[in-house]
Amino acid sequence: MLHLLVADGNDRAGRETHLSVCDKTSAETYAGILHALAPDAVCHLVAPADADAALPRALSDCDALVLTGSTLHVEDGGPAVTRQCDLVRAALEAGVPVFGSCWGVQVAATIAGGRAARNPRGPEYGLARAITRTQAGADHPLLAGRPPAWDAPAIHDDAVVEPPPGSTVLAGNDRLDVQAIEIRLGDGVFWGTQYHPELDLDEVAAMLRLSAEGVVQAGLCPDEAALHAYADALRDLHGDPEGRADLAWRLGVAAEVLAPERRRREIANFLDRLVRPRRRP
């Protein structure tokens, strides 16, 4: 049996907002996916941004830590950020494998000596397009099974703008050099993606609605009505991915995004290629 600690990157306000549009928290989304990919897994949820958070299981008794996305900004600092940095640092120094998407990558890069900040090339809203491996990522197990180029759900303003010393950047695209990365700290290994392999298209749609003002300000939609129409199309495509080929064509959404087993490939690779081989007796 695997014991996986799932840390929600949001503070209380962020969790409540996410819950209001997605009917589940980011940690609950991840826990459901982890259990689907590893039926023998038990997920222990924690919200480390909170001052009163207590680990439901000791790190030494966990096979892995997974850190979700967040509405927080690493550069802002503060206790809610520091507590999460401390948790990831403690896990890695204890040799616990860590996976993170979006916020998780930014936290891991920061504690290892890199820098996360607003992406100078602009945000990615909806999908990160044409992600490709670096030379170092060509045969890396995190990306096993990915085609030469792929798209993935993505919603972020911030990103890793300076990778930490000694890290291995595995993939990027024209918007961002660090779309996937490996970071080693202490006895631990971090694998992560700036994009969101955990998100279904209906969740992407819901999060876009929350970011409507930012999407319009970035020039990606002419107005909020256009953004909501785009979100409606994503939601409808999620509800009928096989029957709405018209929407997939119009939105430019291919199988790497539509098929859950392909969209979640990095999470499955983390479990199968990193966690299970290092599983504690």
Automatic annotation (TrEMBL):
<protein>
    <submittedName>
        <fullName>Glutamine amidotransferase</fullName>
    </submittedName>
</protein>
<feature type="domain" description="Glutamine amidotransferase">
    <location>
        <begin position="47"/>
        <end position="203"/>
    </location>
</feature>
<keyword id="KW-0808">Transferase</keyword>
<dbReference type="GO" id="GO:0016740">
    <property type="term" value="F:transferase activity"/>
</dbReference>
<dbReference type="Pfam" id="PF00117">
    <property type="entry name" value="GATase"/>
</dbReference>
<dbReference type="InterPro" id="IPR017926">
    <property type="entry name" value="GATASE"/>
</dbReference>
<keyword id="KW-0315">Glutamine amidotransferase</keyword>
<dbReference type="InterPro" id="IPR029062">
    <property type="entry name" value="Class_I_gatase-like"/>
</dbReference>
<dbReference type="InterPro" id="IPR044992">
    <property type="entry name" value="ChyE-like"/>
</dbReference>
<dbReference type="GO" id="GO:0005829">
    <property type="term" value="C:cytosol"/>
</dbReference>
